[in-house]
Structure formats: structure tokens, C-alpha cells
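Prompt: Have a read of the protein record below and flag anything odd:
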Amino acid sequence: MKLRAKFNLMLILAFMFGLGLAAFLSHRILQSNAREEVIQNARIMMESALGARNYTVQEIRPLLALQINRQFLPQSVSAYAAMQNFKVLREKFPDYLYKEAALNPTNPNDRATDWEADIINEFRNNLERPELIVERDTPTGRILYLAYPIQIKDEGCLPCHSRPEDAPKTLLDRYGAANGFGWKLNEVIGAQIVSVPMTVPIQRANNIFLTFMVSLAVVFLITMILLNILLHRVVITPVLKMAKTANEVSLGNMDAPEYTRSGKDEIASLSASFNRMRRSLENAMRMLGD
């Protein structure tokens, strides 16, 4: 195997190792950053929903307290306010979803599905857990779910949800007495769940990864070409010229021109040593002839 082939083989092996390591690390970092971006978006939307709930409890519910005895108004319910607020967001981002799922909801539409019930039970079994992040594959792509527990911390919620006989008649007229009762103080009765699609951030991360890897390959190709040019001019060409001179001298052609390499590098030192050896050989042959 020639010197150039050996050099290129070692260079390619080193590049393949470096490329594999760079691919592993960069892909992992980019995917992690994409996931963190999705989680951050989910947290922002969750805080928006919490803001709507708090505003309803503090500002809207007191204004409608007297009217509830005559007519039940869903606008006084914090969950309703959060859902309505999210509907406005969904006009521009239809893939983003928000739900307040419960095991025993007042409104049957809020009843938890099987996997949502698993999230709620996780919160019920770990009361200190502030949030839960779940990823699921759906027909539209991978979805990230951020969930916060809904825990009864205000005794003001119990009159409407402890016993049917204590609840406002207008609430019973609207939803009946079969659901949404039996809640207890400090009990986790449900979960706020925000779903955010991961397709766009992951696709963007994949595009960045592909661009990075192609750029790395192009840089390697250019570097390899430049190194081969340098190898040819600095090493291979001088060595071939010295080898040609040595071959002619070995065949008895003492008139073969010397190869002199200027400079102070190793090739220049080699050419100087070769020329001294050749002159010494000529002197020895001349002395033998005499």
C-alpha cells in the first residue's frame, strides 16, 4: 500500500470516528433542546390557564354570587374560564389542547380517559409531585402532555361538590346530582393537561442536525483535499525525485542531477544527507578506480 493510500485510510478512519461521535452528541443535544422548547411552551400555556382560573375566582365569581341562586352561570367556574381562554389560542394553534380531566366531574365532558386517569392516579399516589410530563404517539405525530394536579385546597369549593343536598339548586338543574360530588379537602380530583405537538420542533432539530452533518462532511472533504495536496508537494514529490536519483546512481549513472530541497524541515535534511551519501559513494568509486 502506497504512502498516500495509508495516509488517506488513517484520515478516513479518524474522520468516521469523529463523525460518529459528533453525530451522537449533536443529535442528543438538539433533540433535548427541542423537547425543552416544547415543555417551555406547555408551561407558558399552563400558566395562562392558571391565570384565567385565578382571575375568575378572585374577580368574576364574587360578582356572580347572587345570580347563581336564580340561574347557574358557567362563567363563574374557573375551569370554564380557562377552557374559554384556551379556545382563543386554538384559533391560531389548533393542535394545542387543554383539558381539565377529572375522575368524577360535574360536567360529563370532563371525564378522564384511561390514560388521563393514569395521570390523575399518579398524582393521587404522590401528593408532593407538582407536575407530570408524558409523551405519546398519535396519528398526527408525537405529542407532549404537561399535567398539573387539581387538588381541593379551598373549602369554598366543597359546598358545590361535597353532597348534592348542599349544592345550589341551579347547579343540580343543569348537571344533575349523579356526578361531581363526594369531593374532600386536599383530595386530588383531577388534572390540568396541556398537549403540545412535538413534530415541528423535532423536525427543525432534525434539519439543523442534517445541515450540521453535511457541513462537517464538506469541511472534512476540503481538508482531505488540502492535506493530500500538501502531502504530494511536501513529501511524495521530493521522495520520488530522490528515489529516481538513487535508482539511476545504482545503475551506474553518476551524472544524474542531485535533488536539493531548500528549507530546514525533515525532507530538506533528508535530501542533504542523501546528496552527501551520493558524493561519498562517488569518491569511493573513484578511489577504487585509481
